[in-house]
Amino acid sequence: MELKTITPNQLYTPASTTAGERLHQTKKTKNSAINLPGLAVLLGTFILLVGAAFLVYELQPEFDQLHQERMNSTWGFILIVVATTLLIIKGSFFLYNLYLYIKYKPVKSVADEQLPTVTVIVPAYNEGKLVWDTLMSLAASKYPVSKLEILAIDDGSKDDTWYWMQQAKEKLGDRLSIFQQPENKGKRHALYRGFNLGTGEVFVTVDSDSVVKTDTLRNLVSPLVTNQNCGAVAGNVRVLNNKRSIIPKMLNVSFVLSFEFIRSAESSLGSVLCTPGALAAYRRSAVFECLPEWINQTFMGQPSDIGEDRAMTNMIMKQGYHILFQRNAYVLTNVPEKYKGLYKMFIRWGRSNVRENLMMAKFVFKEFREESKIGTRLLFLNQFFSIIMAYPFILLMFFFIATYPLLFLSSTLVGILVMSSFPVFFYAKRYSLAESFYAYSYSILYTFGLFWITPYAIATASKRGWLTRDLVVKKVS
């Protein structure tokens, strides 16, 4: 198990002089990780959690009485049994993930002569100068120039994105090819054009608001060389603008758990469920095997214009390929800094999750792979179970708020204190103790401010639209 500490200075490696200037604010030491607003949020978080723990202690007689009332009623007893069963299932699944995480090891980069030819596709829409940073970071990669093709595709941007692509082209020359869609057709169509234009044995997709480390590309594609059963590889996504506001700070800690713990566990089964749009690699033959289905994908009669990364992952997994994760392939990406942008991003992800779980259900219990499929099916069931339980959980939540508001609030906060301690420990072990406490703040935000996302995403799963593409987001400057 690799638990090598990686400092922020190692993470935020500038790809070029310009990128270095633009990312200057992100190069902080651990000791300066918490600014005054961040400190205020963490203090508020601890006051809430400690206060809740004290309240639970003081209200223990009321909790005992409620428990006794449940035990003496049929429905109450059923609820206790169901809740206990769910807790045991979730706990068992966590221990299973922990076992898989311990087994996981990233693949080391292969030698230059073994590296495949790669086409990197960068779709961009209204990214402005940030697309320059993305392209410069890719060009600075420690990858044989003769084996690296970079394609940037402007998806009908309304700002100066095309200008910055032209500037990058002027600087990089033949190393970069740029294309402009005649109109905004969506990220999937921009990628589709890139897939058809690219000549590499491996396709790499990178979001246009992201910056890669110099060794990212070679680390990302190496599993495709060492494992012929590997069809796709997910990169390790961290937050680029996590020094600018509170929400990115929280998401940065959340991303570490989501990628470095959960995807590491999934990778041990060869079944990473989503290769992120921010950074992913695909075997050329696997892409072209499913490309017509992917570009023509529909949901409830409407063209699918979201979830292109999860859809591609599903379609490659359905072919029998392994989907792996490379913890040593870092990409730094921008995330929303305001609540509105955050919930819109989560709605899009939620809708995609609903759609692609339904798609996965069509093949996951069939003989889609020669090796054992039990682990993959357990991963699917865990996700699917979270979806189908969304409405019962939210109804129960409203019921307890209406009948036992103080008991509900205090016990929920104590539950956050207990359950979020693992993400805190995990992040502190791998990166920074000071920043790790944002896991508590994020859990409070998600529990009380984003609990409605999954039920809403289920109810509106057929709706189209990227939601955040036209959102004005402050870029790193």
TrEMBL record:
Its main location: membrane. Keywords: Cell membrane, Glycosyltransferase, Membrane, Transferase, Transmembrane, Transmembrane helix. One of its GO terms (cellular component) is plasma membrane. Coiled coil: none annotated. InterPro entries: Nucleotide-diphossugar_trans. The keyword Transferase applies. GO terms for molecular function: hyaluronan synthase activity. GO terms for biological process: extracellular matrix assembly; hyaluronan biosynthetic process. The chain crosses the membrane at residues 36-57, 77-99, 378-401, 407-427, 439-459. Pfam families: Glyco_tranf_2_3. The keyword Chloroplast does not apply. Gene3D superfamilies: Spore Coat Polysaccharide Biosynthesis Protein SpsA, Chain A. It is found in: Cell membrane. This is Glycosyl transferase family 2.
